[in-house]
DNA sequence: GGGGTTATGTTGACAGTGTCAAGATCATTC
DNA sequence: GAATGATCTTGACACTGTCAACATAACCCC
């Protein structure tokens, strides 16, 4: 029996994830169909169902993978900056991930899984852990530089919302102008820093 | 001929938009199918195609309507606050619109139209005008209160990104906790105000 | 090794989707 | 009153996710 004509694929689970990522990058979530994916993996339409409960589960698996990647970037950034908090670098790295992996980012934070679909237990855990780590790390970076009456966790969440908003605007095709995008993110950082340097609020 | 059995609907265009909004609110974009919509309007599957080129065009029309609503809210807010800029109120109003009309907001700013679909020329115009108005209005609110070296337009865009990010997080089902959401948005406003009150940046 | 169990892969089928083509009906206009 | 265009209908097609039933291979225990 030749290797090409064997009945069992042997590594379909991983192959599916890999090919799915390829299709995702090429045509977006809306262009990712299980049937095309199966064909691409050289397997029949329903074979993927033996490895993922349904399409939603597959997408959750992709998102989980992506969270691991972003997690690593965030952790590395938080470790590197160490005692000398560099929010600018942090934001740049975060934005870089989102703009270089727009479809993954969409999957991680978009309504496809969180609202329309049903996020896997696994995805929920990974995502929440990621949120927590992010918030804690960032609030550690901000420690002692906050305006009076500010809650470090809330500040971290608010500034994350800012960065996230920038990512969404870019990813969703609203800021088509790359130059504008950079200027705006630059200004966002400046804004955050200005807030941090102020010692008074009301 | 009875009114119920007449061949021509008479007001299908508007009826479609209205019923589409109902379906949108009830089941989201992903639950809005042209066939269900046609049935709901008491008309055959392909009748809508005589009033909208395709599904994308119908969704663009819905988004255009929604932009008009948000536009009005923004304009009213900017006029009301007048000489006494009240960013807090502005943010609250914006967030209110988004949380009360989540599906419309998704349509207005989501990838459904801007990335996956093809935004109508009309939608583009309305949207860009809305963006511009928003940015100009907000930057007028901020005038004279900015940290040195800040570009008012950029600040407006950056703070819009913050608000937009909060909206997305809520709408996409990531901040399920309403209480958290309010605290974070509160903090975001505080952050912006703190930045404005600071006279120095870097 | 042989037989039963489980994992994996296949074909067939179904309901649902957007959309095109061709024809039916009505409203309007010359 | 006939012709033209707007509106609506049925029929059809390709595509989607997913279930049921069956086929094949791998694995494990006696």
Automatic annotation (TrEMBL), chains A, B:
<keyword id="KW-0805">Transcription regulation</keyword>
<feature type="domain" description="HTH tetR-type">
    <location>
        <begin position="10"/>
        <end position="70"/>
    </location>
</feature>
<dbReference type="GO" id="GO:0000976">
    <property type="term" value="F:transcription cis-regulatory region binding"/>
</dbReference>
<keyword id="KW-0804">Transcription</keyword>
<dbReference type="InterPro" id="IPR025996">
    <property type="entry name" value="MT1864/Rv1816-like_C"/>
</dbReference>
<dbReference type="InterPro" id="IPR009057">
    <property type="entry name" value="Homeodomain-like_sf"/>
</dbReference>
<dbReference type="InterPro" id="IPR050109">
    <property type="entry name" value="HTH-type_TetR-like_transc_reg"/>
</dbReference>
<dbReference type="Pfam" id="PF00440">
    <property type="entry name" value="TetR_N"/>
</dbReference>
<dbReference type="GO" id="GO:0003700">
    <property type="term" value="F:DNA-binding transcription factor activity"/>
</dbReference>
<dbReference type="Pfam" id="PF13305">
    <property type="entry name" value="TetR_C_33"/>
</dbReference>
<protein>
    <submittedName>
        <fullName>TetR family transcriptional regulator</fullName>
    </submittedName>
</protein>
<dbReference type="InterPro" id="IPR036271">
    <property type="entry name" value="Tet_transcr_reg_TetR-rel_C_sf"/>
</dbReference>
<feature type="DNA-binding region" description="H-T-H motif">
    <location>
        <begin position="33"/>
        <end position="52"/>
    </location>
</feature>
<dbReference type="InterPro" id="IPR001647">
    <property type="entry name" value="HTH_TetR"/>
</dbReference>
<keyword id="KW-0238">DNA-binding</keyword>
